[in-house]
Design goal:
Blueprint: H1 8-15, H2 19-55, H3 64-96, H4 101-124, H5 131-146, H6 149-166, H7 169-188, H8 200-227, H9 232-263, H10 267-280, H11 283-293, H12 300-305, H13 309-320, H14 325-335, H15 349-363, H16 366-379, H17 384-406, H18 409-412, H19 414-439, E1 440-442, E2 448-450, H20 452-470, H21 475-484, H22 493-515, H23 518-524, H24 528-547, H25 556-563
Antiparallel strand pairs: 1-2
Helix pairs in contact: 2-5, 2-7, 2-8, 2-9, 2-10, 2-11, 2-16, 3-4, 3-6, 3-22, 5-22, 6-7, 6-8, 6-22, 7-8, 7-10, 7-11, 8-9, 9-10, 9-17, 9-21, 13-14, 15-21, 15-22, 15-24, 16-17, 17-20, 19-20, 19-24
Length: 564
């Protein structure tokens, strides 16, 4: 924690401050995490309906003109997405190589040329001429629509460091709450609020990007806020509550989606109207978050950075108690001279570890399960209602094991949980993929079916995978990201957060392409993608074992000394 003295006296006194007040601030900050989970997981219930309502009709030869327009705008928006993401990443790379501008410029130019070389054939590609190619294009568009919020997450995560430094943690979270609110309304009624001159489906995409921007901000600012107001002894536990809030938000929207789907038994109603209420429901938690933010203070560290010592002292008095507030304030003041250090001041390793923790957290495939659980369960033979009910079970397991992680992260340490969790995920994903591969058959209509016993085994492997993630890479990654970066380069956390969202976008966009691809499906029976995620789990375990330092019990000032 940025303002915890490493001496025993100050530390114990601070921990004896005002725990109720600290918990209240933590709960408000974790609402950003709740909306993170709520906003990203809402597509799980609407995924099938969005495909039916906006995309499936492009496969009908009678809708050729619509297909041409849909594909044309997809190529345009996808290309813009690539360049926006590249601009964000390039900005962070140049910031990272502030002392080595030539190397940074060379990397940026090489990346730009490579991406343009890839995009030009994609843009010039002719309209798919056969049904299989058109189906593959429809899968790609569906992946883009479902994962579109992640584009905003990349942007929000990348600039969260700048926002936290320029206007503060609190105001950044207020912007996040506003973005959630606008997105909930616009995504529910993209036709009514289509001011972008595109097809309604891409109006929906743009509003989802706005919501994703709020998620990106909250993903960094919520744990940062908590870490800067929490005592070192319980910091891991309190930061982990942000992950609990993310999972709780997902579980809430799973229940909401199920309730909405059950409110009208007609599948046509769900595909035409029901999915809109799923997105609109997000207005309620977003408004609550927005209102409560006006009643919490800015963090003492930000106040001190901006020469507001009196305000910082008042906040510290409430947090640490009047006896120790002055001592903690003095410690913050002693570290302020290093707040603007270049990101490579401690070498590249700390930044690389942050980036790879983020990338592996996504490449193990967790958001495929969280976003496409309904699709996966339908591949097992479940109906729409059953799929949504099973999704609730997934959310409950996720929540339960996240709570267990919260109560063990400060006891067993970060590294053991991460290594064991990665191995558990790898085994589960390999087993899930093998179950699909060996147990799926072809029905009379040409679709793949799975026996009840095989479906039960697949469900068990899926739940053990979620449990392994929730006990490890879910909450503990955020704890490590909030702890490994020294105070003087805290802004470098933004490049790790941006990398996380880029990896999330890649995984979420490509899953329908791999899972529904005609050739891969015929050969691997929907099992191929899960083997890829299993391999990533093994690599993640080796990475943590070899490179990641243990941060258990260390203050943020201790971490600064470690990297030096």
């Amino acid at each position: 924690m940025a303002f915890i003295n490493t001496t025993q006296n100050t530390s114990s006194a601070f921990q004896d401050g005002h725990p109720v007040y600290i918990m209240m601030l933590t709960l408000v900050a974790t609402l950003g995490g709740l909306l993170f989970g709520y906003d990203t997981a809402v597509v799980n219930g609407a995924e099938k309906s969005l495909g039916v309502f906006y995309i499936a009709k492009m496969l009908d030869p009678a809708n050729h003109d619509y297909a041409v327009q849909l594909i044309g705008q997809y190529k345009l928006l996808a290309s813009v997405t690539f360049y926006v993401c590249f601009a964000v990443v390039a900005t962070l790379v140049m910031k990272l190589f502030a002392r080595h501008r030539v190397q940074g410029a060379v990397l940026t130019i090489v990346g730009l040329v490579a991406m343009t070389a890839y995009l030009l054939p994609f843009i010039r590609e002719a309209m798919p001429a056969d049904a299989v190619a058109l189906k593959n294009m429809a899968d790609a568009i569906k992946g883009f629509v479902i994962s579109s919020a992640l584009i905003g997450c990349i942007i929000g995560g990348a600039i969260a460091g700048f926002i936290s430094k320029s206007i503060g943690r609190k105001k950044g979270l207020i912007i996040s709450a506003l973005a959630f609110t606008v997105s909930a309304v616009g995504a529910a009624f993209p036709e009514k609020f289509n001011v972008f001159g595109v097809l309604p489906v891409y109006s929906f995409v743009i509003y989802r990007i706005i919501g994703g921007f709020g998620v990106g901000l909250a993903s960094m600012l919520s744990p940062m806020y908590i870490a800067e107001i929490a005592p070192a002894k319980i910091r891991g536990k309190l930061v982990s509550w942000n992950q609990f809030a993310i999972i709780f938000g997902m579980l809430i929207i799973y229940f909401v989606n199920y309730a909405i789907a059950r409110s009208n038994p007609s599948p046509e109603w769900l595909d035409q109207t029901g999915w809109r209420w799923m997105f609109l429901s997000g207005v309620i938690p977003a408004a609550i978050f927005l209102v409560l933010l006006f009643f919490v203070p800015e963090t003492p560290r930000f106040l001190m950075i901006n020469n507001q010592e009196d305000k910082a002292l008042k906040v510290l008095t409430k947090i640490a108690g009047p006896k120790q507030a002055a001592a903690v304030l003095a410690e913050i003041k002693a570290t302020l001279h290093e707040t603007s250090a270049p990101w490579l001041s401690f070498g590249f390793l700390v930044v690389f570890i942050g980036i790879m923790l983020s990338v592996f957290q996504q490449f193990v495939g967790i958001n495929v399960v969280l976003y496409y659980a309904g699709n996966i369960f339908r591949n097992m033979g479940s109906s729409t209602d059953s799929s949504l009910m099973l999704t609730i079970i997934v959310g409950a397991i996720n929540l339960l094991f996240t709570v267990l992680a919260i109560y063990t992260v400060d006891h067993y340490g970060r590294k053991p949980l991460m290594i064991i969790g990665a191995i558990g995920m790898a085994v589960s994903m390999f087993a899930l993929g093998m179950t699909f591969y060996l147990s799926s058959g072809v029905d009379a209509a040409g679709g793949f079916v799975m026996s009840k016993n095989a479906a039960l085994m697949a469900l068990i492997f899926m739940l053990t995978y979620v449990a392994a993630f929730a006990m490890s890479w879910g909450p503990v990654t955020w704890v490590l990201l909030s702890e490994i970066f020294p105070n003087s380069i805290r802004g470098a956390m933004s490049i790790a957060v941006a990398a996380q969202w880029v990896a999330n976008l890649i995984i979420s966009w490509t899953f329908p392409i791999m899972n529904d691809n005609v050739r891969l499906t015929a050969q691997f029976h929907h099992g191929f993608a899960y083997w890829i995620y299993g391999l990533m789990g093994l690599l993640a375990a080796v990475f943590v074992w070899r490179l990641v330092p243990e941060t258990k019990g260390r203050s943020l000032e201790d971490m600064q000394k470690l990297w030096k």
